[in-house]
Write a structure and sequence with these properties.
Length: about 240
């Protein structure tokens, strides 16, 4: 098996030379300039080729400082947002992480370099299929992509060392709190009204109470499901 901590990255498809300078520019101008300092996060974002996770017609914009459409009305998140979430979750490689909202599969690919195992839940089958193909192509074999309503989490695999939600929740989904490891675990989720959220990081104290840190304003596509929004746009 590939040793991901080996900085030479011998696996084909990882860190392709033709776009390496674009990743280095992204790291410098979008991430380091905005206080992304964790070397493991920066390394993961240096080696994963983001152009493979966007539709062909957007390949030239793959390293732009913003979200990009991926079809089905969804987006691949801004690189900075992916990095912030990864940095908040931490980089202990023994962890199992849960991602809600696979989308293109890029976020899970980054997390897979920072954890032992990543479970990623997506509600749209075609997006999940494409993400799985991308992970396979890159040899990222520690990601399990599952189809379903991520607002319910994945109780059979819980508790998780970290959970990130890459879609906007009207309120913190209770099942995700219940599936988070107390004290050390972190849940990162954008919470708020449909077009304006605040990124929140939640930990559980020894009595199981949530300790919420509100970070900054953001706008994500809606989290649609039992503990999210209804497909029409009303809070479920
Ligand atoms: N992490 C993604 C990436 O790297 O491309 C970005 C995901 S996009 C901003 C949000 C995704 O959340 C969409 O693909 C959407 O279909 C998905 N989503 C929305 N509600 C969901 C739910 N209840 N369960 C699982 N996925 C959901």
């Amino acid at each position: 098996m590939t040793n991901w901590h080996d900085r030479t990255n011998p696996t084909p498809g990882i860190d392709p030379e033709s776009t390496r300078w674009q990743r280095q520019e992204m790291i410098r101008h979008q991430l380091q300039a905005r206080a992304i300092t964790d070397p493991e996060v920066l390394h993961a974002m240096t080696i994963i080729p983001r152009e493979l996770f966007v539709p062909r017609e957007y390949a030239e914009q793959a390293y732009a400082d913003g979200p990009i459409p991926i079809g089905e009305g969804q987006t691949i998140s801004q690189p900075y947002m992916v990095a912030v979430m990864a940095q908040l979750l931490g980089t202990d490689h023994s962890r199992t992480l849960l991602e809600i909202g696979t989308g293109s599969g890029y976020g899970a690919a980054i997390l897979s370099r920072l954890a032992k195992r990543v479970i990623s839940l997506e509600r749209i089958p075609s997006l999940l299929d494409q993400a799985r193909q991308r992970w396979r192509h890159l040899g990222l074999d520690n990601i399990d992509g599952l189809l379903g309503d991520g607002t319910l989490g994945c109780p059979e695999q819980a508790p998780f060392d970290g959970i990130c939600v890459t879609a906007a929740a009207p309120r913190i989904p209770i099942p995700l709190l219940q599936q988070l490891k107390p004290i050390s675990g972190r849940l990162v989720v954008p919470v708020g009204p449909r077009f304006a959220q605040i990124l929140q990081c939640i930990q559980l104290d020894n009595e199981g109470n949530s300790v919420v840190t509100s970070l900054f304003d953001c706008v994500f596509v809606p989290l649609i499901g039992h503990h999210g929004w209804m497909p029409g746009g009303r809070s479920a």
